[in-house]
Structure formats: C-alpha cells, structure tokens
What we know:
heterodimer, A: 518 residues, two-stranded antiparallel sheet, disordered N terminus, B: 2 strands, transmembrane (chain A)
Amino acid sequence: xxxxxxxxxxxxxxxxxxxxxxxxxxxxxxxxxxxxxxxxxxxxxxxxxxxxxxxxxxxxxxxxxxxxxxxxxxxxxxxxxxxxxxxxxxxxxxxxxxxxxxxxxxxxxxxxxxxxxxxxxxxxxxxxxxxxxxxxxxxxxxxxxxxxxxxxxxxxxxxxxxxxxxxxxxxxxxxxxxxxxxxxxxxxxxxxxxxxxxxxxxxxxxxxxxxxxxxxxxxxxxxxxxxxxxxxxxxxxxxxxxxxxxxxxxxxxxxxxxxxxxxxxxxxxxxxxxxxxxxxxxxxxxxxxxxxxxxxxxxxxxxxxxxxxxxxxxxxxxxxxxxxxxxxxxxxxxxxxxxxxxxxxxxxxxxxxxxxxxxxxxxxxxxxxxxxxxxxxxxxxxxxxxxxxxxxxxxxxxxxxxxxxxxxxxxxxxxxxxxxxxxxxxxxxxxxxxxxxxxxxxxxxxxxxxxxxxxxxxxxxxxxxxxxxxxxxxxxxxxxxxxxxxxxxxxxxxxxxxxxxxxxxxxxxxxxxxxxxx
Amino acid sequence: xxxxxxxxxxxxxxxxxxxxxxxxxxxxxxxxxxxxxxxxxxxxxxxxxxxxxxxxxxxxxxxxxxxxxxxxxxxxxxxxxxxxxxxxxxxxxxxxxxxxxxxxxxxxxxxxxxxxxxxxxxxxxxxxxxxxxxxxxxxxxxxxxxxxxxxxxxxxxxxxxxxxxxxxxxxxxxxxxxxxxxxxxxxxxxxxxxxxxxxxxxxxxxxxxxxxxxxxxxxxxxxxxxxxxxxxxxxxxxxxxxxxxxxxxxxxxxxxxxxxxxxxxxxxxxxxxxxxxxxxxxxxxxxxxxxxxxxxxxxxxxxxxxxxxxxxxxxxxxxxxxxxxxxxxxxxxxxxxxxxxxxxxxxxxxxxxx
Lengths: 518, 354
C-alpha cells in the first residue's frame, strides 16, 4: 500500500474543502446509520418489516434505501475516477479490504449455489472459491475510489433488489440442511440492513474525505464507532430491561411513610402478604462478610510477604502463577471442590460456613493480585526515607507502606466482593436446602460458649442458608409462570447489590489513581 | 535458587532469635501443620492445635512483633499455594475411580449411560468447545474494536465515562444473564428461528460472548493504553494519520496484551456455568449432525451443575462429574499460564519502567 496518492490528481498539501463529493457521499453514510438502527429495531421486534411508514412497508423502504445507496456510491466512484471531482485515492485498495469483499462474495455465491440451486459441494465450493478470487483480484486491480465504492454498491444492489422483487420477502423462509433452525424473511432483511449499513457507513465516510489515508481514517473510525455504540447500547439495554421488568415486583406494596418495602423486607411464606427475599439478602450479606473475614487477612498478608520480604525470583513467580491460576479457575470447580472437601468435614451437610469458605477461596486470589499491585505502586522513596530515619523494616511496612497502599487494597476488596456476591455456581452445591425461606439467619445472636470443645458454637453458621443468586436460580428450576415476576424482582435486587459494590470500587479506584498522578 | 535463598533468609533470622522465640516459632509451625492435618482427617479436633497456634501468634506479636509479622505473612503466602494444591489434589483424587473404570475412553467416548454406569465426556467437551468458539467469535472482534474505540478514537470526556461503565458492566452476575436468556431469548429464538427445543448451543455462545465482552474490552484497553506515548508520537511525527498509527504502531505493540485479553475471555467463556445450565436443556447427547449449533446438548460446566444432585447417590457418576471438573481445571490453568507468559513477554518487549 503506497501512501502516495493518485499521480494524475493535483494534491494540495493541506486539504481545506472537498468538492461536492462529500455531500453526495453523505447519502449512503446517513442511510447506513438509519438502516443500522432499523435493523436492530426489527431484531428486537420494536417494528415489523411489514409495518407501514408513510404508506410503504419497512421492507420496501429499506430495500429502496439499499438501491439508492448503491446508485449514489456508483456515481461517487465514477465521478472520482474520471476526475470530475477532486479526490485523493491511492492506486489500489488494501489487501485486507479486498479479501473482506472476497469473503462476502464467497459466502453469497456459496449460499446461493448450495441452497437456492441445490447444487452439491462439487459445484458450489469451486464456484464460491472462484468468486472469492475474482472479487479479490478485481478490487485489488482498480484504483482505490472504485475499489471502495463499487463492491459496496454491488452488495447493496443485490440485497436491495432481492428484497424489492420479493425473492427474499417477509414471508421467505430458509431451513438450512443439518441445522435445527429456520431463517425467516424479517431476520434476513434485518441482517442485510445491518451488514449493508456498516458497509455503507464505511464507504460513504471514506469517500467523503476523498479516499486516501484521510478517507481510510474516517472510514475506519466511523465503522469502529458504530460498533462501539452498538456494544454500549446492547449492554445498557440489558440493564434497562432488567429494571423495567423487575421494578413493579420490587415496589409491590411499597410505601414511603410508614416505610414499607415488602419484597425486600419480607421472607417467603404464607404469613406474608407479599412474598419477599429478605432471607436471601441477609444470606448474601453473611456470605460476603464471612468470605472477607477469611480471605482479606490472608491475601493482604501474602501480598505483603511477596512484595516486601521475598526476593523477587522463582518463589514469587510460582506464587504468582498459582494466584493467577486460582483466579481463572471456573467457579463451578470451586463448588465441586467444596462439595468434596469442605462439605464432609463441616457438619456433613450444606452450611453457611462452607459457603463463606468457598467464596473466601474465590476472593483470595482477587484481593491478593490487587493488593500486590497496590503495594508495588507505593514509591520506593517512602521506604528509603523511612529506613534512612533508622526505622526497622516491619515498622516501615506497618506505618508507611500499608497505609499508603490501603486505598488500592480496599478497591480490590470491594470489586472482589461485587464479584462473589453475584456468584451462583460455587454455592450451588454447598449452601442451600430451602431456597425460599421464611426467616433470615441470625448469626450474631447464635454464638454460644460451651465448656467442652470446640468452646464456641454458632448454630446459624452451621445451618443451611439461602442467597440472592441462588434464589434466582431456584426460580428458574422451579419452572416459569407464576414465579417469573418474583424472578425479575430478585434479578433487579441482585443487580443493584452487585452494581453498588462495583460502582463504589471503580469510583474509589479512579479517585486514588488521579490522586497518585498529581 | 531464590526459593533456597528464602529458606536461607528464614533460617538466618531464625538463628538470630533467643531460645523462647525459637521454641515459639517451632510450636507455632507444628500446631498449624497439626491443625491442617486434623482438618483433613478429623475435623472435630481442629480446635485444639488452632488454639495453640493462636496463643503462639499472640505471644509472638507482643514479644517479637517484627519476626512474627514476617512469619505470619509467609504463612499467608504458603496457604495460597496450599489451597491451589488441595483443590488440585481433591479434584484429581475424586476423578480417579471413573478413570480407572473407563480408562482412556473417558475422553473418547460419547456414552453417558447412568443405568449402565458408563460415562464418557465427549458430549460435554463438544458442547463446551462449540459454545466457547461462538462466544469468542462474538467477544474477540467486538471487544478489540471497543478497546480501540475507547483508547484511540474517543475524545477524552467520552473515554472517562465509557471505561468505568464498561468495567461496571463486567460485574453483571452471570445468573442474571442466564435468567434473561432463559425467560426471554429462549422463547424468542423458538419463535423467530423456529427452534424445535428450548435452548441451543448458539444462544449460550451468544450470551456468554456478550458476558465476556466487558472483560475483553477492559483488558485490551489496558494493553493499548500501556503502549508508550513516545512510540505513537514518533509515528505521528512522521506524518501518519491517527488511524495509521493505531493500525501500524499501537495495535501491533499491544498485540500480546490484546491476545492475553482474548485468552482471558476464552477462559471466562469456558468456565461459565449458570448461563449454560439454565439456557440449555442439558441432554447428554451430541447434536445431530455435529455442527448443528442450534441443537441442544450439554457443556462440562452445566453437566456438573445440573447433575450433581442426582449423582450424589451414584459414586461413579459423581466421579465422572469430577473428571469433567478436572478437564475444565486443566484447560483453564493452561490458558492462564499461556496468557501470563504472553503478558510477561509484552512487558519485556515494551521494556523499561515507562
């Protein structure tokens, strides 16, 4: 790819204004942006392809848009290559772009040959390979302005005409051989809209800058920005969706004065007018507290040893590998381990204590990694200054290093707590006997001191409990229907609890990072 | 070598102590080992050595705080290793019976015959493989694109809002995804794609992919961010556009960090349990034909989560589930080691303390 532009054009060193082509190229770009949204709206079933807008169905509108975009792109390409408008294309389109178009041709020809004309692999495979090679070579052999616009225009024209002539209409279905799924017209039209729109946005914005390296930059940027916007939109929609479905259940019977929030503050049983999830909330709180009590001292201690005492070498590397291994171990494996190792040794039954321990095991590597990072981030000048004053190593650690690292450690703990609070798999096997319980475990009130071993007992710690994520799982296994509302409510509360921890953790981290940089 | 030097350092500091401290150290170490042994063999007796250890630690804290702190932090480090060790040992030990019974066919047979007591893991491994591939296809390209957007394209104000938002989204519990998948997406897919059964590998892959997205975005963005500004500035000074710099300098420089992020995402997808369990019907049969991603089968994780209850009374089936756990554990551990090696190499390449 040479960066020197087409030699037959006058090149201005500073591009001030591109002639009308940028406005023309805006047409496919705008169509692309609109079609992208409409495509998603069809997938989410906010609109249906046969719905009518201004007397025309969405299917027709979209396909007309495809054809229009194709015509305009063609025109832009031709205008640019004949020198009518002043653009700055390279001699050839990049290999990656050419291969991408080739791949689209491969898929298109392959699907048409094998499915529409029902040919065997002996026919469709060579045909699609030929299409791949032809398109790739063709795109590579023309100047960039044609290589960018014409393939996109061809794609747009084909899908636009296919829908417009009802070859692939709203009532079309396709059941590919060997797959259980069938593809129906609306989905195909939406897929065309999305792929076509991305291509249009890319080609349109590329052309609007007069091709060349500036065009490629804008093309790539607009493509990636569209991706990123879609990604964020999906994730935000997820949260909105849960809130929308769960809010009614959470606020059922709620009132401000006297304060009542029955779904959150009630248990589950006949004595309650609104069944609630209070026991599960308390169970989750105790699980988290137990895990923190178990894991944080261990993790911080280990982090101190690794950073302050140990020689950096094979030993620290082994521990590091082990911690990272522990961190990435699937949560269900922790559950299985607790089921085999802890369960028979603690009451031989499901207990709150086992749940706390297994979540503590999960929390340990997370806190260790972040604490270590925090300790390493404490500037060596602090340690040196303290040592220069004649302070011993331990006193330096206690009164200089640890206080300086506390924000980082705290952030790690909070983020870790957010993660384990939402975990279902590890406690699946070791915690719950009755997911929908009427009363919450009372851990503080259950300590009893005895004269014989083990001197302290706690009935609540050694009894089964329930937890928010498990409760959601139980709603699913109990079957949908009447309990679905209950599930959405639980999901919303769980989401709030976890998001709360994450929000605090991330905010403190940003705050302290900024402070550190000052 | 440095392990040895650690031991030397410990014995040196041990030699500097007076004799009550030496005895206390010995008693403390022995009581802790006894407590651990007691927990393995006779959990009821744990309390006695544990009390001794607490007493010794308290004595040490007040008489020799520095040495005690050092020993206690060392013990904390050791216990991390011990925990990983115990997890590994117990998984393997529990998986031995089925391995002895089935031999190598445990990993090559697709039979899951509860009544005949014959188990093979191929069905589960296939399910896990297919869902992981789909999830990676979803999360890797989108995730990297998202990272490039945040790190290279977005203006500063957008970046500062989007990055924490993405991290926040990484916290959505998997069971919530699973619930949405179970209640909404399953019926949607049955309706729109005319799937014959509730749940399919495709849906699971899609959901897990979306679930892994924030992690991939966030870690790849860290990698892109770690590319020294001097490298980018050099490229821009030569007259490249920002996109050329991104394409030819930033991404290649960060490629190992980005691949580590993708591997991390793959690890997440492999180990994801709840979404797979609640979305799939968990039938222990391979899809027919094999490549039917819209078919219904089971994954390693969902096999464990959905069958442990019925398996509690059947030692062989339980052992087979442990074998599934071992496969998961080994694969994920291997992935973790690979991604660490990549990351370490990246640090060496980018070099220095920039």
